[in-house]
């Protein structure tokens, strides 16, 4: 019973910050774009709270 509840909770929670950062890096088209995206992440692009 708790296994199915955990699966549902995990699905509703959404992606973690690390998952979003990795997906952003994986979308780079070349080395220059990858380096730019790494700098953006280092500056806290995904970790800012509003």
Briefly characterize the structure:
This protein is 68% helix and 0% strand. By secondary structure, it is mainly alpha-helical.
Question: How does this structure look, described?
Answer:
- The radius of gyration is 15 Å and the shape is elongated.
- α2 (17-26) runs antiparallel to α3.
- It is mainly alpha-helical and 50 residues long.
- The chain is built from 3 helices and no strands.
- The termini are far apart.
- Helices cover 68% and strands 0% of the residues.
Total of DSSP H or I helical runs spanning 4+ residues: 3
Q: Runs with pLDDT <50, length 5+? A: none
Kindly report the average pLDDT value.
Answer: 88
The proportion of residues in beta strands is: under 5%
Count of distinct strands = 0
Helical content band: 55-70%
Shape: elongated
Largest sheet: none
Distance from N terminus to C terminus (CA atoms, Å) equals 37 Å
Order of helices and strands: HHH
Structural class: mainly alpha
Fold blueprint:
Layout: H1 2-13, H2 17-26, H3 31-42
Main attributes?
50 residues; mainly alpha; 3 helices; elongated
